[in-house]
Amino acid sequence: MKTSDFTFHLPPDQIAQDPLKDRSASRLLVLDKDSGELSHHTFTDIISFLRPGDCLVRNNTKVIPARLYGTKEDSGARIEVLLLKRIQDNTWESLVKPGRKAKTGTKIRFGEGTLLGEVTGIGEDGNRLIRFTYQGIFEEVLDSIGNMPLPPYISHALKDKNRYQTVYAEQNGSAAAPTAGLHFTEGLLKAIEDSGVTIANITLHVGLGTFRPVKVPDVTKHHMHSEHYQILQEEADKINLCKKNGGRIICVGTTSCRTIESATDENGILPAGEGDTDIFIYPGYSFQVMDALITNFHLPESTLLMLVSAFAGKENILRAYKTAVREQYRFFSFGDAMLLL
Question: Which terminus of the chain, N or C, has less C-beta within 10 A?
Fold first, then answer.
């Protein structure tokens, strides 16, 4: 299976640079994966595709201001650090640019010395382990000196950094937002619950595994970076009960999908617990739990495009993307949405 099989042409002006004023005013392209039929809607129409007894599974992770700009203590050279995953209380796996300036033992100053970091190790993939020292509470220090880790295709900073958070974000730890959830408002979620749909929360802290590009020509040779997840017993019970009663499991975003698909046991039961997942879903994968997916439009040759192709069929997805380009849909993090049924 070739990586080049998952490409499409996208005019640069269709890459959304800013979120809409009204989160739920995005457009919604609905794809019936069995018939291939496409229909065009606004996101608030999502409620008409949900049924009493369904379960909407959402990722309640919260993006931290994970991009830090610092200087090497010995030379003053500038260093950019993206926090990916907490390994221990004060040690983070991090992506560092330029990596050649961050050898083991390198000390980095951030925020005029508010935060100090020392490179304590280098992983096989080149990511650095950085141990931080600081006064006070780490999250408060990050809030004061860190930057929201917007994707590189977004050209400017946000006026309101909360627009890169879902309205239900609770658990700190992500280096990127689960962007399918950005379309929901509190009012829309209440209306969905009032219609008889159960809402279940899982947590997957989005890191390099989600947005790392596929750089090998053979899809099956790509290695996913692991990300940490947690599923509470109450939330697992909601999902298992829905499946038992014949309801549909509808995932909000690929991170929710990857979490429940990787955590479900051989009997189709989703247990409570936490761990790391490096699940890579591409065509040929047999879905165990998910029945429908709400998702954004993804980058060409990305693992996310491969995941939605596994669920709805590559030909269906590429045809839908071609239609979305023709109909001037907005793409990527702040763009429009798809519902795959």
Answer: N
List pLDDT tens digits, range 26-73: 999 999 999 999 999 999 999 999 999 999 999 999 999 999 999 999
Report the distance separating Cα 126 and Cα 315, nearest Å.
35
Per CATH, domain 3-63+160-340 is 3.30.930.10: no
CA-CA distance, 62 to 149, in Å (whole number)? 12
Q: Please name which of 207, 189, 185 lies closest in space to residue 63, comparing C-alpha atoms.
A: 207
Write down the domain spans for the chain: 3-63+160-340, 67-145
**Coil vs helix vs strand at 59:** strand
- At CA 49, angle to CA 252 and CA 304, rounded to 5? 30
Q: Which CATH class is domain 67-145?
A: mainly beta
pLDDT value of position 88: 86
Query: Rounded to whole angstroms, what are the CA distances from 271 to 77, 228, 231, 261, 265?
Result: 47, 15, 8, 11, 7
